[in-house]
Amino acid sequence: MKIKKYTAPTMPEVMKEVRKDFGTDAVILQSKEVKKGGLLGMFKKTFIEVVAGVDPEPVNSKSIPREKQITEYNQDNHNRKTKDENPLREEILNIQRLIEAQGRQSNHEFTPIYQLAYEHLIAQEISPTIAEQLIKEVRDDETNQDEYHNLESILINVKQLIVNRLEQVDIGFTYDHRIIQFVGPTGVGKTTTIAKIAAKLYLEEKKKVAFITLDTYRIAAVDQLKTYAKILHIPVEVAYSKEDYRKAVEKFSSFDVILVDTAGRNYRDNQYLNEIQEWPSSLKVTNYLVLSMTSKPKDMLDIFQRFQLLGIHGVVFTKLDETEQYGNLLNISWNNKIRIGYMTNGQDVPEDVIQPSAEEISHLILSDNDES
């Protein structure tokens, strides 16, 4: 990594020099105030000193997968498979699956057809505990036992149980306070998500929206939000300190909503989480946790538990178009009864953001995207 120290009277002037030398891939390693000049130790002026660096071989942005192409490919492939299927082939597949399930050892004392339904839920990355609870509840329901003679009937009833559970969870983007912070680990798509939500609030709900970014760790993140702000005609302020944050909030006192982009760093770093908690100080904020659907179930649960100390109002699930397993939607909301604000499925602003219903989420979770 190439490293260089910069000094200037203000942070924007420092950033201008850093960007000039290193471009948008620069990383801020350290920043502090220093005193310089003066006469006999008096009348010294305050300067900003920044240590910045850049990887000599930055990641080529062209290597990032184009999410829309992935979505279209998966949809075309799924449609092609659907056309080729016929009832006889599907029946043969069900018999094969049933025979396989009958030969597997189960700790749940499920009959083969229920074992097959259980494994269908596991394949969608629904946690084993939740999957077992759902299948047992369907199995033990004596009112419709005559219906439960095939996998489809069982899954229809599982789907309704999921809908009932999700209806106990608040769905939809709401906020108790006009300052809305978006928190989460690096790489989940916070900045793009904020732009999508801002577009919805501004264009559809006619809200007066402003941006504040605390993500000064990477210059590219600041530039990205500024680009979105320019396109949407939304003002943006960059906060390098708690005082900057407070001043930005004061500046936007007449706005309906202030969307705050926090830094994306290692969520296992307790200092990072403490900073997010301390920066708002006495300000009243609503926190939304941004989670990527490409995360492993265990990792996503760990992320959620670590960010809970901030007081999470709801979650936004991103990158739905990059996976075919949606069990995490249920895993997070089942035990925590946490609000699902939005789901995103692409890079387009503002099109690729969805405010789903309980029925839509349940259908997505139980959809079979691999029928070959």
Automatic annotation (TrEMBL):
NCBIfam families: FlhF
Keyword flag Cell membrane: yes
One example GO MF annotation: GTPase activity
Family stated for the protein in its record: Belongs to the GTP-binding SRP family.
UniProt function note: Necessary for flagellar biosynthesis. May be involved in translocation of the flagellum.
InterPro entries reported for this sequence: AAA+_ATPase, FlhF, FlhF__GTPase_dom, P-loop_NTPase, SRP54_GTPase_dom
Organism in which the protein naturally occurs: Oceanobacillus iheyensis (strain DSM 14371 / CIP 107618 / JCM 11309 / KCTC 3954 / HTE831)
Gene assigned in the entry: flhF
This protein's record includes keyword Protein transport: yes
Gene3D superfamilies cross-referenced by the UniProt entry: Flagellar FlhF biosynthesis protein, N domain, P-loop containing nucleotide triphosphate hydrolases
Domain AAA+ ATPase residues, every copy: 176-313
Domain SRP54-type proteins GTP-binding: start-end pairs: 177-367
GO biological process, one term: protein transport
Taxonomic placement: Bacteria, Bacillati, Bacillota, Bacilli, Bacillales
Protein name: Flagellar biosynthesis protein FlhF
UniProt xrefs under PANTHER family: FLAGELLAR BIOSYNTHESIS PROTEIN FLHF, SIGNAL RECOGNITION PARTICLE RECEPTOR SUBUNIT ALPHA
GO cellular component labels: plasma membrane
